[in-house]
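In the present case, backbone shapes were mapped to integers, as reproduced here:
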Amino acid sequence: MTASHATVTECAARIENMGHKLYVDIIISSPALSDDLHTKTVNRCGTVRPNRKLMHKKFGQKMKLKWMK
């Protein structure tokens, strides 16, 4: 766990299990932080770089969506 991850987790402790949304900057956004907050029912919104370490390989690629009928 990085220092920024620990800081955000500590600050978000007050809003756990309330369904609130946390807006984060590109500096502190990471897949591990998103997963950690998701398990604590804290929604996260923010910008993330597609070449970030541990980011899913298909993230940021154009994907063809299927229309629902």
Q: What stands out?
A: Residues 3-46 form one domain. The mean pLDDT is 81. The first strand starts at residue 21 and ends at 24.
